[in-house]
Amino acid sequence: MATPSVLTPQSEDFPRWYQDVVAKAELAENGPVRGTMVVRPYGYALWERIQSELDTRIKATGAQNAYFPLFIPESYLAREAEHVEGFSPELAVVTFAGGEELAEPIVVRPTSETIIGECMARWIQSYRDLPLLLNQWANVVRWELRPRLFLRSTEFLWQEGHTAHVNEADARAFAARIHREVYDDFLTNVFATPTYLGIKPPSERFPGAVNSTTAEGVMLDGKALQMVTTHELGQNFARAFGITFQSEAGQAELCYTTSWGATTRLVGGLVMAHGDDAGLIVPPRLAPIQVVVVAVRDEPPLNEAAGEVARALRDAGVRVEVDTSRGSFGRRVTNWELKGVPLRVEVGPRDLAEGRVSLVRRDVSEKTTVAVGAVTRAVLDVLTEVQAHLWRRALAHRDANTHDVTSVADAIDAAKDGVARVAWDLVEGEGERLANAQAVSVRCLQRADGSVPESSDERDLVCLLARAY
RNA sequence: CGGGAAGUAGCGCAGCUUGGUUAGCGCGCCUGGUUUGGGACCAGGAGGCCGCGGGUUCGAAUCCCGCCUUCCCGACCA
Fold first, then answer.
1. Mean pLDDT over residues A83-110, rounded?
2. What is the spatial distance, in angstroms and rounded to an integer, between the CA atom of A348 and the C1' atom of B58?
């Protein structure tokens, strides 16, 4: 079963391979304005699955969805000094509308802390109104100099959570909960992507945050990708927007706020975390199509059998599709492999004669046969195994590409094609500058045991360095 | 935004150096037929402001200028 080469091989040119997958799996294409992206139906189906899984988890924490405007008065951003400084270079600003020059320029949201902060200030009166837990699904715009589909686009889709709390401990605990129960749980159990959980060094923090967490994935080429992030915003935005509450004791106090997000970048991460030279590989629990049933020939008995198998699987809760397209068998198979459907059920004349069907896993070149009556059980088992195998494989890849080192020079060297782990004390300051000069950055800080620190002031932290998307 | 490469049919490309009939090829697409267990074959067919704008010229895909877009490498970022 030699796999025909329809893509640039990863080993030949990884960025080219990535683009080929995005194009040939029909995930997305470039829009007419630089940096914009047309997300095609299959790419959007992947995003909808991501949305659905995250949204369920977000709501389980008590957060509620709402929607805030795309347009934000420029003056809002200016109220938080670091925030405006951080985002100014990538803002799209509307200065002309309705046929005339605007009195005050309007910013297209790069993120919504400011406009939501202004609402929070009005909505929160008393400690009884806290915590206030909001989330929105929206598009945002950050003018990108070097766009890449999904990984870095000028307009992208995301979820942004925004919360307000009575004190620092509550805010910190909630951000940590989101990091763990929403993001890490999703990345582990659905996305099958092991990450390094940690906090960002001060240099990489969100503009206006006092602390940012990250989950850094290790892609197949050894580069790191920030998959998700949470921020403790301290009282910075509360101060800027007057987000105050009356305490139990009757005192006016400033809230502590958080924000946290996951973006369409995850689709790019999916491609680069699990794909191979035949295309995308989607973990079963994420896959919009978990099983495709392919009749080997376009003949009534085969089509009927394929339809029956699909019906049984659908009844068992499997997301299944029957391939009813014309064209040669090989062509159709190749297309499903490009799209990364985790399991293919083939129904051919020989199968039918023997009362069985063939199962072909996408993650490994392995074909098995199973009696028609046992298909559902077998498919469920195989999907479970594929999910587990993708996790194990990605974990092994992450660990094999992570190297413990004891000097800045070795760290920079090891980070050229992988992740370097080294004491933060060695790197902080001059070492970080040296690394940055070589396109290597500090991806996150962890405690020595790999757990997530509460702040970068903790002693004896380690840092992970890598090249990053 | 700096350095490099490139824009010709849906995709990949040739043609440009040396301006001149009707702008070609492969894949894909449409029609008909034969096929079908890993990208099938035959025949017929459709599809082009040659990236956009300006200039030179009797005449521009081809020469000149400007702009836009894409890709690679850097600085900024989820």
1. 88
2. 68
Residue of A371, A342, A336, A305 lying closest to A49 (CA atoms): A342
Give pLDDT tens digits for A346-401: 999 999 999 999 999 999 989 999 999 999 999 999 999 999 999 999 999 999 99
CA of A96 to C1' of B61 (A): 39
Please report the pLDDT score of residue A3 as a whole number.
Answer: 40
Q: So what's the pLDDT on residue A307?
A: 95
Separation of CA A361 and C1' B47 in angstroms?
39
What is the architecture of the domain spanning A292-385? 3-Layer(aba) Sandwich (3.40)
Instruction: Tell me the fold of A14-274.
Output: BirA Bifunctional Protein; domain 2 (3.30.930)
Q: Which CATH number fits domain A402-466: 3.30.110, 3.40.720, 3.40.190, 1.10.10?
A: 3.30.110
Nucleotides of B under 7 A from a protein CB: 1-2, 29, 35-40, 68-78
Look-up of token digits 């760290």: A411
Closest CA to A325 of A296, A350, A345: A296
Question: How far is the C-alpha of A464 from the C-alpha of A322, rounded, in Å?
Answer: 45
A333, closest nucleotide (Cα–C1'): B38
Residue A30's pLDDT band, with cuts at 50, 70 and 90, is confident
